[in-house]
Design brief:
Blueprint lengths: L7 H12 L6 E5 L9 H17 L1 E7 L9 H13 L8 E3 L4 H13 L3 E4 L3 H6 L18 H12 L9 E4 L14 E5 L13 E3 L1 H11 L5 E4 L6 H10 L8 E4 L11 H9 L14 H7 L3 H11 L10 H15 L2 E2 L1 E2 L2 E6 L7 E6 L9 E6 L2 E5 L19 E4 L4 E9 L5 E8 L17 E2 L1 E3 L3 E9 L13 H4 L5 E9 H5 L4 E4 L3 E5 L7 E6 L10
This protein binds adenosine-5'-triphosphate and magnesium ion.
Length: 546
């Protein structure tokens, strides 16, 4: 993955660097609103903004866009910082908040008022919406549009001083109510919000809008490339208008790229908030969500997220990426490093009737291709557990696992034969009685027997009980409709098993394991109970072309 990346943004940066007026390198920013946790879409933007300054030299701001105290909190700020760090990026001393600039933003607003370029409008929110016009029809001027600068200034100061109700007045830019671009039809710049802000407390009761704030913060921080997603393309004229109409000596270029869309994932924070608040998931870090915290708890390594973002690339094309692509990147990392071990997810007891001794200790490698990881011990004994799915009372043709009268090899151990099936009152199989062949030990097999299959097992004496969680997609459809969530949820998105794992896994310091034949699993660190989350299954159905 060391190949130089090339995309239209990097080409543009190279050209700008060649022109030679960027002696301190480039400056970018990642500007999250602290109203939720970050998700994989944000990771794309983080990898781009931090990635280009790593590649070309320069610095990246982590700037919180904290202009709506009703929805934002310190808790979200902390989660975002820890997620960015976990993804492997460092903002160094460039941690800022839009609220750091509230004073400056306010004086720029007064400047627009004094210059006759902004006015206090006293229409209600609905009236403003209804007089905005449509894509086909121009809007109509607000009756308050021609207030004098003095009156505007005095009203704006009243708004700031807390003398006005929410919705009573707003500050609007005076641009053009018949502009073909709806964003230019006298957009709101400031509104009254009587809510405590997580950083500025009750200092302010007016808050600037994103479109006014963002461009000014970019300019004040000397951002050389303001990279944002395509939905802001038609906000760009407003970005430029604000900077052209205030007294500021720097004007960054805004450059848009397409958002990441991922099948079976929702990327809207409004919808994720709803999933969390309505209890459809366990929290923002639910392993079924494509939030960074959820992916981490699921066991996805941060390298695989970075590789994924690198591979999907940057363009202006709308895209909907298959989840298998991400899974591929996850397996690629785990395959190299995750120790192997055995876990029985849904245990079925087997009694080896001709084995009466103490458990026999066996040795197995932690990793088939990575001898540096060394070996582990496991045992074989009279009472063992196999996977319920590895036994069929009436096997289909060519069945390779255990069935009455059939033989199968136990991984790292012996060949066994099923002699008897014990059922409970409901007819459910609860135990198998089997014999083992002492001369069939793995690696020293002189039995001449030829079992068709190999299955995993754990001896009772070597087992530790663990909760094992297997996840499927949270949603039924590839592109879930966030407005009717209750119809979109997959009722089988998580299956919880009372399983068993080898003692050696429990004692290991590793967090990610390959449970042989079952997939990659990760020790859930959010609970003191022993829980393993399935990160990804073993098989790739899919290979990338690049
Ligand atoms: P919302 O869900 O309310 O639209 P948001 O995802 O845009 O919010 P922000 O906190 O404003 O949330 O996002 C921070 C940055 O991440 C923005 O610059 C945004 O363009 C970028 N971003 C958000 N979603 C994606 C995505 N799916 N792909 C790429 N970048 C994204
Ligand atoms: Mg946003």
């Amino acid at each position: 993955m060391s190949k130089d990346l090339n995309d239209f943004i990097r080409s543009r940066i190279r050209a700008d660097l060649d022109e030679g007026d960027l002696s301190d390198g480039i400056v970018t920013r990642f500007p999250p609103e602290p109203n939720g946790f970050l998700h994989i879409g944000h990771a794309k933007s983080i990898c781009l903004n931090f990635g280009v300054t790593e590649e070309f030299g320069g610095s990246t701001y982590l700037r919180f866009d904290d202009t709506n105290p009703r929805k934002e909190s310190e808790n979200f700020v902390e989660s975002i910082k820890s997620d960015v760090r976990w993804l492997g990026f460092d903002w160094k001393d460039k941690l800022t908040f839009a609220s750091d600039y509230f004073d400056q933003l306010y004086s720029y607003a007064e400047q627009l008022i004094n210059d006759g370029k902004a006015y206090v409008c006293s229409l209600t929110t609905d009236e403003i919406r209804n007089t905005r016009g449509t894509l086909l029809e121009p809007g109509s001027d607000s009756p308050y549009r021609d207030r004098s600068s003095e009156e505007n200034l005095s009203l704006f100061r009243d708004m700031k001083a807390g003398k006005c109700e929410e919705g009573e007045h707003v500050l609007r830019a005076k641009i053009d109510m018949s502009s073909p671009n709806m964003n230019m039809r006298d957009p709101v710049l400031y509104r009254v919000i009587h809510a405590s802000h997580h950083r500025t407390g009750d200092d302010w009761c007016i808050y600037p809008m994103y479109d006014f704030t963002h461009c000014i913060c970019d300019a004040l921080e000397g951002i050389t490339h303001s990279l944002c997603t395509l939905e802001f393309e038609n906000h760009r004229p407003l970005y430029d208008w604000v900077l052209e109409n205030i007294d500021i000596n720097y004007h960054p270029p805004q450059i848009e790229f397409s958002r990441l869309g991922l099948e079976y994932a929702v990327m809207s924070k409004r919808v994720i908030t709803e999933l969390v608040n309505r209890g459809y998931v366990e929290g923002w870090d639910d392993p079924r969500l494509y939030t960074i915290a959820g992916l981490r708890r699921r066991g996805v390594p941060s390298e695989s997220i970075r590789n994924f973002c690198r591979r999907i690339g940057i363009s202006k094309q709308d895209n909907l990426v298959e989840t298998e692509y991400l899974d591929f990147c996850v397996r690629e990392e785990l395959e190299q490093d995750a120790p192997r071990g055995m876990a029985v997810i849904d245990p079925l007891r087997v009694i080896i009737t001709n084995f009466d001794e103490e458990d026999e200790v066996l040795t197995a490698a932690w990793h088939p291709k990575n001898p540096e990881l060394g070996n582990r011990h496991l045992t074989f004994g009279r009472e063992i557990y196999i996977e319920r799915a590895d036994f069929e009372e009436i096997p289909p043709k060519k069945y390779k696992r255990l069935s009455p009268g059939a033989i199968v090899r136990l991984r790292y151990a012996y060949i066994i034969r099923c002699d008897e099936v014990i059922k409970d009152g409901n007819g459910e199989v609860v135990e198998i009685r089997a014999t083992y062949f002492p001369d069939s030990k793995s690696g020293a097999d002189t039995s001449g027997l030829k079992p068709k299959g190999v299955i995993h097992f754990i001896s009772a004496a070597n087992s530790i009980a663990a909760e094992i969680r297997c996840y499927e997609h949270l949603f039924i459809s590839k592109v879930p409709n966030g407005d009717r969530l209750e119809n979109e949820l997959n009722p089988e998105s998580v299956r919880i098993y009372s399983g068993l794992i080898e003692r050696a896994l429990f004692e290991s310091d590793a967090k990610s394991f390959q449970f042989e034949r079952n997939g990659y699993f990760f020790r859930d660190e959010s609970t003191s109970r022993l829980v393993f989350n399935r990160t990804v299954t073993l098989r790739d159905k899919w290979k990338p072309t690049t």
